[in-house]
Structure formats: structure tokens, C-alpha cells
Amino acid sequence: MPSFKFLDLPAELRSLIIENVLFDRCQPPTKPSKTNRTIFRDIPYNAWRCRAYYQEQQHNTQGPSNSLSLLLTSRQISSETQAILHLNPTDYHLDISMLNEVDIFPTWLSVPRLTPCISTLTASVRLFGHIISPQNVASQVGDGGHLGFQWSFYAVLERFLAYGPVAQKTPNNNKSTHPSQNNPNPSSMDRGITIKTLILDFSSATDKTDPDLTFPPPEIDYTLWRIRHTSRRHPLLLRAGVDLMEHKPRPEFVAKYLTQYIAGLLSMNYHTASYGRMLYERIGAIRVLVDGRVYREFDLAEELAELRRRSYMICHRLSRLS
User: Fold this and answer.
1) Polar residues: which segments have biased composition (predicted)?
2) For the segment 241-255, what is each residue's pLDDT rounded down to a tens digit?
């Protein structure tokens, strides 16, 4: 029986196969689990908290990028692969499973190639479990609190912009979750990754894993849900008489919460400037979706221009007063 070689195929067929390999996506996990996952502590996070559990081993059996095996096979296949990559935008796909409004579990689904310039990073944020418990609220507010899940999202973004979608750079047995107790590798280098468009698409995934959980009743609006994240026994919550742990979070509430947080960072005030700077320097636009529909968009070039305009007006008024 004659042997078959990949290079014996017509060039058009080889291109189709290479494209399928490059842009193939893994399936997201059916539910969030801490099995074979850990918190990576290989960078000095600016985020106040990092409750993001990464896979300890690469989920994609093809390696950190879909193109790696093709680029190492032969000169001709490497050349054909690079030509296809050159003609297509570099889009990454990330699944983020969020459990009980506290822990997040990022899983890379598609990484065509490792590159510092990303055209679009689409993060599908799937919400699992119930609305945050009073016990978890107690650990997020007050003295020593960490002010919510938004910091875990920020930490995931921090690490990606520094290293990309790679495994932990250095082993670390330190089990602390506080960024000040991290032990990053001092020789690690920031790769300076940029994203042209960051998409965050929020949806509920609880129907399949816990069908008994329903959305909260209409009287639990965004204000009451937001109060739950800052208070265990607020009078308005007690008056509503609803046990929020018996309900699943509405994706539009979580999207609005994170959108307000992003807007706060982009305002570059005294408290947020050190965090918003990373967004302005590394991201071109942020698009927030709910169930695939656009909820809010940030054009960071326009935001920065408006910020400069306001700063100029304030300085001009101050100079006239003096």
C-alpha cells in the first residue's frame, strides 16, 4: 500500500486543513471546578485580589498555540502556515466561568499563534451558581476587604497583557491569595501584549448545571443586587424578604457592575489612575455584551481625548482664577 504524505495533497486542500487546525476551538468546561487548577502568582499583581483559577496544564493538547506544530513540521508547511496567519486577523477566544459571583475560572479555547498583537480577544463570561452569599460578602467589604470580583477580572487581564495565554512561568508553593504576598520571578519580562478590541460577553449557564435556580423576582433590581455585594444585612434587603442565594445572578447585572468599574478606571482619578493606565496603554476598545447583544462600548482613544479635554479646561479655569 503506497504511503500518503500531507505535501502530496493539492495546495488548496492543504490550506483548508491548516486553517481548520489554526482556528479550531476547544470546548469550554461543562462547569467550574478547582480540580487541576491553581492561582498563578508569577507576576506582581496590581489588582487587590486574584481569585482566578487557571489550569495547571495546557487544556489544548496542541500546545500553547495552534500553529506551533505546523510551524515546526517542515519549511514548506511552516511557510504556508505563516502565509495563512498573515492573511487572517489574530483573534483569541477565552472562556471565563464565574462561580457564585466570587471565583472565576479562565480557559483558553483558541490561540492561533503566540503574538504580542491581538486583533480581538473575545471572553465569554458564563455565570454559574447562586448570587453571592453573605459569608463571602463579609470577606469583601470593611477593613481588609477586596471590594468584589472585578479585581479578579483585572488580575486575569494583567497577567495576559504581561505573558499571554501561557502556563505559570515559575512554580510557587505559596498559597496566599493576596497580591502583596506573591513571589514572582524577578527575571520575568513583560511581553507588552496589546489588544485592539476586548469583548466581554456575559450569559447565564446555570440552567444546565443547576436548573432549580431561577433569576430573582422583579422587585430585586440592580440597586438591591448591588447592595448585596456591600452589605450582608441591609434594611432594603431585609425588607425585600428574598433569599438571594436561592437565585442565580442576572448577566445584565454583572455586566453593568463591571462596566461601571471599567468606567471608573478610565476616569483616571486619584484612586484609579494607576489601574486605568494599563487599559489606555494596551487596549484600543472594550465592548461589553449581554447574551451576544451590545450593552456598552468604550473607544479608549475617544475616552483619552475627552479626558485630556477636561483636564485642559480645568487647568485653563484654574489659571484664570490665579
Assistant:
1) 169-188
2) 888 999 999 999 999
Q: Is residue 47 part of a domain?
A: yes
Domain-located, residue 289 = yes
HEC secondary structure over the chain = CCCCCHHHCCHHHHHHHHHHHHCCCCCCCCCCCCCCEECCCCCCCCCCCCCECEECCCCCCCCCCCCHHHHHHCHHHHHHHHHHHHHCCCEEEEEEEEECCCEEEEEEEECCCCCCEEEEEEEEEEEECCCCCHHHHHCCCCCCCCCCCHHHHHHHHHHHHHHCCCCCCCCCCCCCCCHHHCCCCCCCCCCCCEEEEEEEEEEECHHHHCCCCECCCCCCCHHHHHHHCCCCCCHHHHHHCCCHHHECCCHHHHHHHHHHHHHHHHCCCCCCHHHHHHHHHHEEEEEEEECCEEEEEEEHHHHHHHHHHHHHHHHHHHHHHC
pTM: 0.87
Q: What is the domain extent for residue 191?
A: 13-321
Sorting pLDDT into bands at 50, 70 and 90, what band is 52? Answer: very high
Q: What pLDDT shows up at residue 187?
A: 44
As for how many domains the chain has, the answer is: 1
pLDDT for 60: 44
On whether residue 150 sits in a domain, the answer given is yes
Among 89-103, 129-143, 203-217, which stretch is predicted with the lowest mean pLDDT? 129-143
